[in-house]
Amino acid sequence: MNKNAAQNLLRRTAAAATMHTARRPLCALFTAAVHPRSGFKRRSKSAPSRHTAILLALLAAACRPAPAASEPPPVQRHSYTPAAPERLLRFPLDHGPHRETAIEWWYFTGHVLQGRAAGQDAPAPAPPTELAGFEVTVFRVSPPAGPLPVAKAAGRPEAASLLSLHVAVTDLAGRSFRHATVGLRERDGVAAVAASSAQPLAIKLPGAEVTLGADGRFRLDAEVFDAQGAPLQVHAVLSSDKPVTLHGAGGYSRKGDCPSCASHYASFPRLRGSATVRSSGGERSGQAVAWFDHEFGSNVLSGGLTGWDWLALQLDDGWELMAAQTHDPAGRPAHRAGTLVAPDGKVTPLGADDLTLTASGTWRSPHSDAVYPARWRVQVRSPAHPLDAELVPKLADQEISGSDSALATYWEGTCEVRINQKPAGTSYLEMTGYDPHHLPHL
After folding, report:
1. Are 410 and 398 in contact (CB under 8 A)?
2. Measured between alpha carbons, how far is 339 from 312 in angstroms, rounded to an integer?
3. CA atoms within 13 Å, Cβ hemisphere of 129
4. Residue of 271, 214, 279 lying closest to 244 (CA atoms)
5. Is the peptide bond before 74 cis (omega within 30 degrees of 0)?
6. Under a CB-based contact definition with an 8 Å cutoff, are residues 415 and 427 in contact?
7. Which of 100, 109, 232, 420 would you label with 85, given CA atoms 20 to 30 Å apart?
8. Which residue has the higher pLDDT, 265 or 80?
């Protein structure tokens, strides 16, 4: 595929086929596309593109209406292997794909930093300034009823998954937020997720490559186009000096009361390196601090839940905190859990009694009219590292609206961590389920 063909494919798929997620909903795209108030608009009255048709056919077969809030059982839509507490994770092998599960994602959020020189009276350089935030995420969705027939003429592997790429840049210097999505089924030489001893993770999509080398370095290279056809780029080289973090019991991360309402969840909570991002505000380059998540499973959420709030804090004292809670249509919290990571990598699991997430204020989106919490208070009651902090978005409008490309609507962006009203770290925050017309169903 030459460069012009790749760019044309990116432009077609960026406006048609994707979904953000299954921390991040498997059926959110289909729900948004067929909802009468979704705001999804075809470019013409002609038949949908081949990629759109494939995606909608997959999701139509996989998705059924979510049960009412009064129905506690998990949603069952497939026969893939659910997460199980007896499974032992082994690395670097488990950084790669798990095709026996229904869905998984590799997720990077990060901050591009520029250091400030110390003044004459300052004994040390001042803390770095964040120039931009970035996100590069790839989702792999298994065929809804088992492997699809092999299409040799199209170069399809036997168990071709749907891959969805999401790229976003928050340009703090230019005060702008841009995002793009690309989605298509795996095809030889075009889109694939693989693993080998030389590269424990190798993902390729039109306009993007994500790899993990045997040297422990992640390389992110994404050059896509946003909904307006403008280029959006993220390039980063990142590595971790901490061991992999397993959330829950040995990486078995519960999301609800039922045993299968779970995923296998591993992270590198503080990757370091360098990054260059480009959006409508121009190019920003500098040091980078990032967070990497990898989750895989099959039945993740309990029935009746419509969203979640996920926070990833990187504190200036060297600690990290992952905190997440699910909620029902009224916004009432359901399951809540978290993980503390010490500077030496030691992990402390947090249950609902150890952790409180409290929303305050509101922000109304000019795109979707959804109303989100304006900030969050995070309280940790653990002797390992007690914490009482506030998360404040660095840019109010970091919403990904489903009206542009049939996405579920959600908010995800870079935030400042404050303790006693003073800066104490950085964070990424995700909020879903606040737009009643684009609710995630997983």
Report:
1. no
2. 10
3. 10
4. 271
5. no
6. yes
7. 109
8. 265
On whether the CB atoms of residues 370 and 341 are closer than 8 A, the answer is no
**What pLDDT is attached to residue 78?**
57
Query: 221: closest CA among 232, 212, 230, 209?
Result: 209
17 pLDDT above the threshold of 50: no
Model-level pTM? 0.81
Q: Which residues contact 151 (CB under 8 A, 6 or more apart)?
A: none
Name which of 395, 393, 399, 398 is nearest 368 in CA terms: 399
On the 0-12 / 13-18 / 19+ scale of CB atoms within 10 A, 86 is exposed
Q: How confident is the model at residue 65 (pLDDT cuts 50, 70, 90)?
A: very low
Q: What is the pLDDT of residue 151?
A: 56
Sketch the domain layout of the chain as residue ranges: 3-66+88-432
Integer angstrom CA distances of residue 374 from 187, 371, 391, 425, 427: 42, 9, 9, 18, 15
- For 3-66+88-432, which CATH class? mainly beta
- Cβ neighbors of 229 (< 8 A, separation 6 or more) are 11
Residue 238 or residue 157, greater confidence = 238
Q: Assess contact for 222 and 234: CB atoms under 8 A.
A: yes
* Phi, psi values for residue 103, rounded to 5°: -155, 150
3-state secondary structure of 150: coil
Residues in the chain: 442
> Alpha-carbon torsion 440, 108, 316, 126, what sign?
negative
